Amino acid sequence: MKKISLLILTLVTIVTLSACGGSDATYKVGASPTPHAEILRQAQTLIDDEFQFEIVEFNDYVLPNTALHEGEIIANFFQHIPYLEGQIAEHGYDFESVGGIHIEPIGLYSLDYDSLDDLPDSLEIIVSNSPSDRPRLLGVLEDAGLIEIKEDTTDEAITNANINDLSDLFDSEKTITFSEVDATQLYTNYSNNSGDLVLINGNFALDHGLVPLEDALALESTDSPFVNVLVTLSENTDDPFIQALYEVLSSDEIAQWIEDEYEGSVILATD
After folding, report:
1. CA-CA distances (angstroms) from residue 53 to 59, 73, 182, 246?
2. CB neighbours of 156 closer than 8 A, spacing ≥ 6?
3. What is the DSSP annotation of 196-251?
4. Within 13 Å of residue 199, how many CA atoms lie on the same side as its CB?
5. pTM here?
6. What is the mean pLDDT of the segment spanning 190-196?
7. Domains of the chain
């Protein structure tokens, strides 16, 4: 088994970007750098001038919700619905999804193997340590033909299982073990050639220059339920700025820009 890269302290970089380049912006929206902040920068060019806003970038999955809860930002745009629901259940956040924008398909990556047919009989797969991602990760492996999830297995069972017991929930012709790291360290483990395969979240793959459609051995299907959503405090869902921002993010102009910019590596949410 190859050595897993040690989890390092998450570096959080906060960058504020004003729509007009000034310092008078009232609203702050938290986001992951790629693709969320990039999409928001396009929204800055389309939103009404009265709703100028700043983008606050976070490089982890914890602080954007902490900042929203503490009132440092009015909304965030980085998470999918199962993660949001898990955070609300764990921390008691009074958050609400304003609406879905896009999907970032998780991909299966390897520096050792060029195709699924080349994989050995015994596999170490490195995955995110976020339990809410697990049903999604196993779904990618099942779609790739590497496992068959047992018929009576629920998403809840997958989420709650100990990482060492996940293999009890599926059948496979291969012997599969899992190693967990923080999601921010998935690419580091990939680049260090740790494990046989690494399941990398779409935003982190894009952050590091991977092209999921070209570089992944397998990619999450386009009907994934893990839609990335705009989130705010429940009391702010009807705020004129929040409504204006969601209207822009779900506009035809943003949809076209996402299609042109990411060429399938970021997929538009569908109703």
Report:
1. 20, 10, 30, 13
2. none
3. SEEEE-HHHHHHTT--HHHH-SEE--TT-S--EEEEEEGGGTT-HHHHHHHHHHTS
4. 28
5. 0.75
6. 96
7. 16-104+226-268 (3.40.190.10), 107-219 (3.40.190.10)
